[in-house]
Structure formats: structure tokens, C-alpha cells
Amino acid sequence: MDFAKGRSHLAVYSADDHRVTEFSAAGAEGQFSQDGKWIAYTGTGGHSARDIFVQPFPGSGGRIPISSEGGAQPRWGRDGRQIFYIAPDRKLMAVQFDPKKGSAGAPRVLFQTRIIAPNFTMFQYDVSPDGRFLINSFPSNYSSPLTLLTGWTALLKGR
After folding, report:
1. For the residues 41-67, what does the mean pLDDT come to?
2. Which of 87, 100, 128, 143 could form a disulfide with 91 if both were Cys (CB 3.0 to 4.6 A apart)?
3. Which phi and psi angles does 152 have, rounded to 5°?
């Protein structure tokens, strides 16, 4: 990811020739499919500030919208036929993807998560080969501690 142009842009590094090639779409959180022929990423241009898209890689082809009401942290299912992402309301979503046709189904809710921040904080979950999920989240009974320190200026006077 490169923020030099003010917005995030995906770039691909080649270990063979040590070249960095900018990907054609502005975006972040890029994830390659298992076969390396598709890339899922978070980008702008949908109805919301950030949505999930898929594009063929490398090569030509337009981007295919995966989410329509926002999303972050796209992940591929191990079979390359499902894409998962986190919706703005922290629900884990799944979308069927047909790599032969380059088409996506409608998003469906899998379950509500307690992910800390659904947007642009890198990946807070992963999908195991058997389809189970590992999710980094707060426990349901978590409450943020609050510490209020008063009279702190008096402590500075003694120094």
C-alpha cells in the first residue's frame, strides 16, 4: 500500500525482478485469490465511502462489485469461490464468486462479530481451510476502562 498520492494505492512487488508495479485501482487491503488470478480489495466508487471489489490479476478486466453498502477486510475462502468481508455494522458477510464467469452473487450475513474497528485496520479475522473463522475481538462483557486524573498540574510544580 502506498499513501504518497494522498490516497491509498495498491502496488505489487515482484521478487523475480524486484520491480514495484502500481495496481490499476486505488484501494487498500488487497488479497489475492488462491490461484493468484484475482485480487479482492477495499476501494472507493460504490454507494458508500469504501466498498469491496474484485478484479482479474494481472491483466485487463473491470472491477466487480462485491459489497454495495460498505465493507472492509476482504478475505478469500480457501476454494476461491467465496469472498468474506466485514460490513460497517461489524457483521461478517459472505459472497459467492464464480471465477470462470467473473461474477458475484448477493452478499449474505453470516454472523455478528465484535471486531474492534471494521474499517482500515488490517485483518482482524482469518478463514481456516475447513471454513471456520478465527476472529480478534473484544469479549461481550468488555467495557473500556476510564481513568480520570485530576490535580496533575500540581505534580508538575514540584519538578
Report:
1. 81
2. 87
3. -70, -25
pTM of the model: 0.75
Measured in Å, how far apart are the chain's first and last C-alpha atoms? 45
C-alpha cell, 140:
461481550
pLDDT at res. 53 = 92
Which DSSP string corresponds to 14-83? -TTT--EEEEEEE-EEEEE-TTSSEEEEEES-SSSS-EEEEEESSS----EE--SS--EEEEE-TTSSEE
Query: What gap in Å lies between CA 67 and CA 84, rounded to an integer?
Result: 10
Q: Report the C-alpha gap between 64 and 38 in whole angstroms.
A: 11
Please report the sign of the dihedral spanned by the C-alpha atoms of residue 99, residue 101, residue 107, residue 110.
negative
- Return phi, psi of residue 153, to 5°: -65, -30
CB 72 within 8 A of CB 86: yes
Closest CA to 86 of 37, 130, 52: 52
